[in-house]
Amino acid sequence: MLNARRPNPLPVRPSRRGLLAGAGALVVAFRLDPKSARAAAGPNLADVKAQPNAFVRIGADDTVTVVIKHLDMGQGNTTGLATILADELGADWAKVRTEFAPADATLYNNSLMGPIQGTGGSTAVANSWFQLRKAGAAAREMLMAEAAFRWKVPVSEITVSDNLVRHAPSGRQARFGELAASAASLPVPSEPRLKDPSEWRLIGQTIPRLDSVAKTNGTAVYSLDIRRPNQVTAVVARAPRFGATVKSFDAAAARKVAGVLDVVQVPTGVAVLARDTWSAMKGREALTVAWDDSTAETRSSETILAEYRERAKAPGLTASERGDPQAALKGAAKVIEAEFTFPYLAHAAMEPLNATIERASDGGYDVYAGFQFQTVEQATMAAVLGVTPDRVRLHSNWAGGSFGRRATPTADYLAEAAAVFKASGEKAPIHLVWTREDDMAGGYYRPTVLHKVRAGIDGKGAVVGWDHVMVGKSIMIGSPFEAMIVKNGIDSTTVEGASDTPYALPAYRFGVHNGREGVPVLWWRSVGHTHTAHVMEVMIDELAHAANVDPVAYRLSLLTQAPRLSGVLKLAAEKAGWSAKPQEQGRGLGVAVHESFGSYVAMVADVTAQDAAIRVNRIVAAVDVGVPVNPDVIRAQVEGAVGFALSAVLRNRITLKDGQVQEHNFDAYEPTRMSEMPKVEVHIVPSQVAPTGIGEPGVPVLGPSIANAVFAATGRRLRSLPLDLSGVKGA
């Protein structure tokens, strides 16, 4: 097997002739120890990497297994990442497999997140692009070196494709599996030759996803599917208000429920352990718990928002500033003032949170879950269990969605699983299950946010000043990531998308107030861009109409220094048959464009708004994500972003009444129905720039494109989300 073992360095000394450029590889003329003659035909081995190739294994049966360091929550990164390595290797796609990497930040850190292993911010492909290309190329060159040694031919005459290593002049060839074991003993090339884009056979092509069959026939294993020997199920009764604690509880009735095995108190509440999930849930229903609300959040959503409005009257901390917008607005020909509000939002992934933990025979712990922040999760559970992190082994499974929820800085649900296991005496494996109601009312929401904007134009319609204040609770303040992310009291994930606007606004200030409520908040698919993009794009649209200029042309005039944004905007408008004029009574087109996570997305929404109802007929999207590793996965992610975000645009919100969440399931927090899903067209900009991400960037532009289309259809501005359907009644 060509595996992650570090090979023994060969006693190789480069000759004075140095490096010679060969056809397809670097050829090195070496003075060798006779025992190391095999290396004579090989690539540049003079600078052997200390770190072995930990991303690919080749079996004797020719299977190529790509080790995936990121969690796949449905976004398809297993296919994308495997594509990168397989293309450089020259693998036959039919023989490519994947497996999730163990927790090991020394091997599998996310280079765009810092020294941790984790998935998020649409970074999986972006941070792995060169890493996996080099891994595949190194394995290819090792196979070539082995073949050249066996056949006593120059390595420059060797080619690799479809799991075969060939020497055309002699007609000889060998399968990967025939060469892998011997090739594995060679040193790993430190700087293997990366293929020119003209040589790619998989990258940029629509090839089948590797997980489709298993997810279709039910053989894919999610963490909710895990069943360990003698496993028991645990559910936890948690406080109905955030910040409340257990005052006392009576478990007598719960213990009488058939199937209930034990009841234990943990920091987050009271856990009921049972033989199955139903018995655990019935046991929890029979519990009597008195809660101490002395430190709990007891306000309602309206009260919190009213406080936000008061705070927004002051300028706030300066996140971005150029020129003097206050002075500029005094001389403006026209000033538009607007308020935007955004509610708390639940992640509402299809698979609720869950994890299984058991004691291993060596005294360590094995944990099974959809791990998104492996380094944080491993360390947090180890601290709860009182062991070092290496004693907690993480076994990653497929995850049925996340949208940010599985990546908490506190590793909350995994810490809870460890606490329940410890409190139970560690007698049997425990599967902690959050029900749908637990998940939706359990906290960690997209923050509720308020924006106030004053923007002005001159007599020719040009923007002269923009004064912007927002209030929202920081995700990072108080978390382990505060030192890295928060500067001068400003959380970059709160202000992203507005503080760094690409629009050429001559006098601009963006101020921020950090909310102080006791509701746990977290990144939600596209994080700060979920609200900043909406505010910027709706306001730009308002200014365009105030200036009596076509909204697409107006944006382009302000994006002269942003060619990639301009490019997707032009492409989306062209493909949509753009017109700012209503197509028919109650029907119109709206546009929005935004950069997030290094990717550029524009959308044109075709909307019908009549009789207090909004129907989105069609979404035309243009995306620029650099090299499109797999166009089908890119299209699927944009289509999925539309489906995911549409319900938040039209209706969804999490509301508090006296501190208690009111929405507990899909009846009150309704996802997008298939019957309301619009037709989605995705157009991808060709590129050879290093790829960025697409898991999140499709979300920010949907809301403003729809809101702007509603204006085009009705003449009524709907600024806040979700869109108030009564606002278009009678239009």
From TrEMBL:
Gene Ontology molecular function terms on file: oxidoreductase activity
Please name the PROSITE patterns in this protein's record: TAT (PS51318)
Q: Which Pfam families match?
A: MoCoBD_1, MoCoBD_2
Aldehyde oxidase/xanthine dehydrogenase a/b hammerhead domain mapped to chain residues? 217-295
InterPro entries the UniProt entry points to: Ald_Oxase/Xan_DH_a/b (IPR000674), AldOxase/xan_DH_MoCoBD1 (IPR008274), AldOxase/xan_DH_MoCoBD2 (IPR046867), AldOxase/xan_DH_Mopterin-bd_sf (IPR037165), N-heterocyclic_Hydroxylase (IPR052516), OxRdtase_Mopterin-bd_su_IorB (IPR012368), TAT_signal (IPR006311)
Name of the protein this chain belongs to: Oxidoreductase
* Organism, scientific name: Methylobacterium tardum
According to the entry, what is the taxonomic lineage of the organism?
Answer: Bacteria, Pseudomonadati, Pseudomonadota, Alphaproteobacteria, Hyphomicrobiales
